[in-house]
Design goal:
Layout (H helix, E strand, L loop, with lengths): L1 H23 L18 E13 L7 E10 L5 E5 L2 E3 L11 E14 L7 E9 L5 E10 L6 E11 L4 H10 L22 E16 L14
Antiparallel strand pairs: 1-5, 1-9, 2-4, 2-6, 3-5, 6-7, 8-9
Main location: cytoplasm
Family: Belongs to the B9D family.
Pfam family, one: B9-C2
Length: 226
């Protein structure tokens, strides 16, 4: 009899608890809601395109050219998808001896809390000289387009040069150009002041960009155009 009484008391407690939730108007069991994400304070920028070719008015100074690219952005930018750096295949000049075709695809997505430090792409071009020694053939950089824009840019290539006459003479004899330890400093104008260089050739790059979440942050890129 005592066991039956204890069992009845437990049933009464459970029934009273269910009635309490029913009268309060809350669901049982309570439903957990997923966060809506309306409080996000960043926007996304998706960039696609390709490094089409390199053009040299009098032909390249070497053979077996290849190019490396690096994505550089401000401290508030974070890479969401894609590769931060990449390298093309080795290519030879076309029949006109002026154009070197790469057709290297570029695709990445980044997010940021503000537009400061807008993403840039730094290119480093390399090739073999007449001694069949690999050396750099120039550097270039471009800014990523604004959202809704498609651009085809002809970025000038520049090659660093020695300021010392003896080093310059050795560079001319050996066919080896000076290289930069970190080409990404080209994205910051304050870090390469006084750099001696000469310009020869250009890279042809086509890029387009789309964004998401800009209106929520009050950002307007204006009317898009091709």
């Amino acid at each position: 009899m005592q066991d039956v009484r204890c069992h009845r008391q437990r049933l009464r407690k459970r029934t009273s608890a269910c009635c309490m939730f029913a009268t309060s108007g809350s669901a049982w069991p309570p439903i957990m809601k997923e966060p809506s994400g309306d409080g996000e304070s960043f926007f996304h920028l998706a960039v696609t395109g390709q490094l089409e070719s390199a053009y040299f008015p009098m032909g390249p100074d070497g053979s077996s050219l290849f190019c490396r690219y690096d994505i550089v952005a401000g401290p508030d930018w974070e890479l969401v998808s894609g590769m931060r750096s990449g390298i093309t295949q080795s290519a030879q000049p076309e029949d006109d001896y002026r154009t070197v075709v790469f057709n290297m695809p570029l695709e990445f997505t980044m997010k940021s809390t503000n537009p400061h430090g807008w993403p840039q792409v730094v290119f480093s071009l390399y090739g073999n000289n007449f001694w069949n020694v690999e050396t750099n053939r120039g550097y270039a950089r471009i800014h990523c387009p604004l959202s809704g824009m498609k651009r085809t840019v002809r970025a000038p290539l520049f090659v660093p040069k020695f300021s010392n006459i003896w080093s310059a003479a050795m560079s001319w004899l050996t066919g080896v150009n000076p290289e930069m330890r970190d080409p990404k400093i080209l994205a910051d104008g304050s870090k390469h002041k006084g750099l001696a260089c000469e310009s020869y050739g250009e890279l042809v790059v086509s890029l387009q960009a789309i964004s998401r979440g800009c209106s929520r942050m009050g950002l307007d890129w204006g009317q898009s155009y091709d």
